[in-house]
Amino acid sequence: MAAVVATPELRRPVVVALQTLAVAACYYAAGRLGLLRQLVVEGAVFTPIWPPTGVAVASLLIFGIRCWPGIALGALLVVLSLTSFEPSAIGIVAGNTVAPVCAYLMLRKAGFRMKLDRLRDGVALVFLGALASMLISATVGVGLLVLTGKLAADGFWTVWLGWWVGDAMGVLIVAPVLLMLYMARRPLNLSRWKEATAMTLVACVLVPLATHSPISLLFLVYPLLIWAALRFPHTGSVLCALFASVMATIAATDGAGPFARLSEVEVMMKLQAFNGSMALTALLLSAVITEQRNTRRSVELACQELVEVLEHLGNPSATPPPAADDGRRRQHGAK
């Protein structure tokens, strides 16, 4: 009996340790992936989209606060892969750990639901999970660069803006995709596979054209986002936003398409404005549409139950509807 009781107690630390290592590995892999495309502003290198922040926030929402050591370990591995160990590295790791933890705590306080099926969930992820909490990592990271003499003081705000938006974009672009994959349930609904295939083909043609054409055609992505949000809320919109952000980042770092012949600061501003507005459109529009659909289903269900109750009142000899039957049982139990 003692062995049976002790088994769960021994299993829990093993599960937590495996989760910590998995989060650290995913964080490190996302960091290496994000470093493939970089921008240089004021002599400082940063990534327009920093995927590890999305991995960190999604991991905290899925596993809880206990996975924060995995985030810290992953951040440390990323820093060590870029430079030798320095005291300032501890501060950067701390900032990159505290920011997602603050995002998780604020989202939990706001009653955030991982399904993102309400407008308040989309707004909370944008303003609390991304814009507000990532102020910490950007301020700590750029502040340490200035204090250690690696960045001139007059370049603080330009680099800070790029760092902050890059971290926020990781939350807005990557976290919704990971949450969508976690919340997906089998069997998948394939009733509209023809439309999904057509949308995929259109995206594969339209997005590269919009992001690499010498004519500024970035606005062509928005009708595609609206189509995806209307027909495939969340799934279509977040995947479309992810694909468009990646393609725009590739074009910006290569200096191609609408980003050609621009200065470093202009490239950063144009890319971050496009990615940010697109992520906001995808998240908030899909959340509004999903919330309206859920409200309509609730109203239709309530109307159906009301019709069944009225039919029963008009014909008492008929079998009472389940809702009325359950209510009657609860009344008798209360008596």
From TrEMBL:
<keyword id="KW-1133">Transmembrane helix</keyword>
<feature type="transmembrane region" description="Helical">
    <location>
        <begin position="123"/>
        <end position="148"/>
    </location>
</feature>
<feature type="transmembrane region" description="Helical">
    <location>
        <begin position="160"/>
        <end position="184"/>
    </location>
</feature>
<dbReference type="InterPro" id="IPR007895">
    <property type="entry name" value="MASE1"/>
</dbReference>
<keyword id="KW-0472">Membrane</keyword>
<keyword id="KW-0812">Transmembrane</keyword>
<keyword id="KW-1003">Cell membrane</keyword>
<feature type="transmembrane region" description="Helical">
    <location>
        <begin position="196"/>
        <end position="222"/>
    </location>
</feature>
<feature type="transmembrane region" description="Helical">
    <location>
        <begin position="88"/>
        <end position="107"/>
    </location>
</feature>
<feature type="transmembrane region" description="Helical">
    <location>
        <begin position="234"/>
        <end position="252"/>
    </location>
</feature>
<feature type="transmembrane region" description="Helical">
    <location>
        <begin position="14"/>
        <end position="35"/>
    </location>
</feature>
<feature type="region of interest" description="Disordered">
    <location>
        <begin position="313"/>
        <end position="335"/>
    </location>
</feature>
<protein>
    <submittedName>
        <fullName>MASE1 domain-containing protein</fullName>
    </submittedName>
</protein>
<feature type="domain" description="MASE1">
    <location>
        <begin position="21"/>
        <end position="293"/>
    </location>
</feature>
<dbReference type="Pfam" id="PF05231">
    <property type="entry name" value="MASE1"/>
</dbReference>
